[in-house]
Design goal:
Chain B: InterPro entries: 4Fe4S_Fe-S-bd, 4Fe4S_Fe_S_CS, FDH_Electron_Transfer_Unit, Formate_DH_Fe-S_su. The complex is a heterotrimer. Chain A is mostly helical. Chain A has two helices and no strands. Chain C contains eleven helices and no strands. Classes of the chains: A mainly alpha, B alpha+beta, C mainly alpha. Bound molecules: iron/sulfur cluster (2 copies).
């Protein structure tokens, strides 16, 4: 049990990383301008 | 501070001088002659007493008389006990039939000797109670930090807690160590350890505090048979060679030196040993190599990998429009 | 060390005089005559394949905890490679992928720092790492690499989330992108620079393995986070990363030879390695097929590759621990190296 608990911080770090990254990458949110090739990648 | 890797890893036989001491005293160390060790563990006790090393379990390990298992944070001297079904060179008990009364001999001859698995401490072959085939020897060896010429523990320590003393020994500064534990797997001999409740790394200091005032280390001081000898490493190497020749002459062909060779993987050790069997029998590595010997190659490979990582991520981004 | 004449003091050099301590000259077994030729020194037991002291390890097992240090190997790699991928994405006009990477990098970095400090025996003394810079200590070098990388990665993430100071953010992102690869690969040197057989003997392949694993995980995070239109680089990164990771692992096993590679194939280490390879390869496959069209499939592939990368790092870590625990991995290769010459 203690062993599983000791992995919690690591699991949390991975989960937070994925979640925050996903939030940051969601389309539709305003992204800073100034990117060189702006809209070029559109489908 | 070692900015230059090659200088940091330079091959040298005078570790104190190459660590920057302008005019260091002679390099000091141990010569542990295991052929005269009687396994009394006085060294273990003296070390614990002098250095205030905490008790680390009064255990029965079932490994002969060994109860400290191995070197670590709380064991700086460790006496190994090995029992082997093998005679020592010219070994005899020294007890002869001369003093045994006649009737006892007669009575004894009517019995069949039975081996109790004990060392043959009775009279010799064909005598009272003799067990002719009972070959047995006890190997005892007091192990300690090797105070390597090229010490991996010292090389990898990120805080500089481990340092080289003017006597060429390797010592941890307990007020600097932050318990990163890097030195523990770096040591090829399994010497240094991290103390659980304290969090810091500890090992033999070659009694740095005693050396400073002209005293020899506690273990060498206490050893009743002079199995542990303390002195200048140069002189100890000669002494060890002399002792080896003496034992070989006496027919102890299994005697060998360990750590005496300045050309071995750790540049020779400050603690030289005379062993009566292969090092691994005592729990010592047969051919230890300081891990940092390959460090330049490691950094080169890592640099190539880092470059490749950069190149690949650039290529996958610029290489295609999608 | 000087000779002291003071009679009341024990003279350090006293033991130099053989007259004072005759017992050190004692010849073993000298109490009796030899019982005849060949007696005593005969080797009574046939030489066993491998000998040890009661099967105890020669090395002291690393005190590093898997959940901290193996976790850090993964998180550090993810952070470093994500920063590089993010900057590349930004420069090639993929703003969402860039922002996801920057934010992911800074979170992974936070986890790394937590793990590194938590693993110390004296966490409050972490700053002692900054007392010195020692090139002979990969941990010291790594700390300084993180010290350079960390603030830049942080700044890059902050500016991209707030949208303020874009020029400063760009510079920070570029800086993080250039130091990121060092963060991702120095950890291989960190574990290799020990006496642990599996880690040390694999010191040529480990940096490649870690680099591949880092690229794969950064790509995977991109797949997980970025919209489909921008995941091109992430997808390709996953492919290259997974293939590199797999190839490096195979090379590593070959280099270590049948004996020392054992912990990578059996036990907990072996299980994690196999699981990691399976997850990574599956993830890479899905990312190249369904992951091109479906957002969900891409995310799933990303999650699989991330999990695979975690397993591989933990597998390498556990295999190293296992190789330190068993004396045969230390003794046998050294014996082989010595050859026959040392046998009396
Ligand atoms: S590497 Fe091991 S044996 Fe050598 S000085 Fe350090 S602790 Fe002692
Ligand atoms: S545990 Fe202490 S002595 Fe050992 S490497 Fe870390 S800081 Fe140095």
């Amino acid at each position: 049990m203690r062993k599983i608990v000791s992995y919690l911080p690591f699991a949390t770090a991975v989960a937070v990383t994925c979640l925050a990254s996903w939030l940051a990458g969601r389309p539709g949110r305003a992204v800073p301008t100034g990117t060189r090739r702006g809209e070029r990648d559109g489908h | 501070m070692a900015f230059d890797l090659d200088r940091g890893l330079a091959e040298t036989q005078d570790p104190a001088a190459s660590s920057g001491y302008p005019d260091p005293p002679e390099r000091m160390g141990f010569f542990t002659d295991t052929s005269v060790c009687i396994g009394c563990k006085a060294c273990e006790v003296a070390c614990k007493e002098w250095n205030a090393v905490p008790e680390d379990g009064l255990n029965f390990t079932a490994m002969s008389y060994d109860n400290t298992v191995g070197l670590g944070a709380d064991t700086w001297r460790h006496v190994a006990f090995v029992e082997q079904p093998r005679g020592l060179g010219g070994q005899e008990s020294g007890l002869t039939v001369v003093d045994v009364p006649g009737p006892t001999v007669e009575r004894a001859h009517t019995r069949t000797p039975v081996s109790l698995g004990m060392p043959a401490s009775g009279p010799g072959d064909g005598q009272v109670g003799g067990v002719p085939d009972m070959d047995f020897r006890w190997l005892m060896a007091s192990d300690v930090c090797k105070h390597c010429t090229h010490a991996a523990c010292l090389d990898v320590c990120p805080t500089g807690a481990l340092f080289r003393t003017e006597f060429g020994s390797v010592v941890v500064q307990e007020d600097v160590c932050n318990g990163c534990g890097y030195c523990v797997p770096a040591c090829p001999f399994g010497v240094i350890g991290k103390r659980e409740d304290d969090g810091r790394a500890w090992k033999c200091t070659l009694c740095y505090d005693r050396l400073g005032v002209g005293q020899e280390p506690a273990c060498a001081k206490t050893c009743p048979t002079d199995s542990i000898q303390f002195g200048e490493v140069e002189e100890l190497r000669e002494r060890a060679a002399r002792r080896l020749a003496q034992l070989h002459d006496a027919g102890v062909g299994s005697a060998r030196l360990y750590g005496h060779d300045p050309d071995d993987g750790v540049g020779g050790t400050g603690s030289i040993f005379l062993l009566l069997d292969e090092p691994e029998v005592y729990g010592l590595p047969p051919d230890p190599v300081v891990t940092t010997r390959d460090l330049p190659s490691m950094w080169r490979h890592a640099a190539v990998a880092a470059g490749a990582l950069l190149a690949v991520l650039a290529a996958v981004s610029w290489g295609s429009r999608r | 060390m000087t000779v002291r004449d003071d009679a009341s003091q024990t003279d350090v050099r006293m033991d130099d005089d053989p007259r004072l301590r005759p017992e050190r000259e004692a010849v073993v077994g000298s109490a009796g005559r030899r019982r005849g030729p060949g007696r005593g020194e005969r080797l009574m037991v046939p030489r066993a394949e491998f000998r040890s002291y009661y099967g105890l390890p020669v090395l002291n097992e690393p005190t590093w905890e898997a959940h901290d240090i193996a976790g850090y190997l993964f998180l550090g790699g993810l952070a470093g490679a994500s920063s590089t991928l993010a900057a590349a994405a930004e420069l090639t006009g993929r703003p969402h992928l860039a922002r996801a990477g920057k934010v992911g990098a800074v979170c992974a970095l936070g986890g790394s720092m937590y793990a590194l400090i938590h693993d110390l025996g004296r966490p409050e003394r972490f700053v002692n790492m900054l007392r010195v810079l020692k090139v002979t200590s990969p941990m010291s070098v790594g700390t300084w690499i993180l010290t350079v990388y960390g603030p830049q990665a942080g700044l890059a993430a902050l500016t991209s989330v707030t949208g303020r100071f874009p020029r400063l953010g760009r510079i920070a992102a570029l800086g993080a992108a250039l130091t990121g690869p060092a963060v991702a690969t120095y950890t291989a040197v960190l574990v290799s620079d020990t006496a642990v057989p599996v880690w040390h003997d694999a010191h040529r392949e480990l940096p490649l393995l870690f680099a591949g694993s880092a690229v794969a995980s950064a790509g995977a995070l991109g797949l997980l986070a970025a919209p489909l239109e921008e995941t091109g680089p992430a997808r390709r990164a996953v492919l290259v990363g997974v293939v590199t990771e797999y190839a490096a692992a195979k090379l590593m096993e070959r280099r270590l030879g049948p004996l020392v590679a054992e912990p990578l194939k059996r036990g907990r280490g072996g299980l994690l390695m196999r699981l990691g390879e399976a997850l990574s390869l599956t993830g890479a496959l899905v990312s190249q097929t369904a992951g091109r069209r479906s957002r969900g499939a891409a995310a799933l592939a990303g999650a699989a590759v991330l999990a695979g990368s975690i397993c591989v790092r933990f597998g390498v870590f556990q295999a190293g621990m296992a190789s330190a625990r068993d004396p045969k991995y230390t003794v046998e290769p050294q014996r082989a190296r010595l050859g026959e010459e040392s046998h009396p």
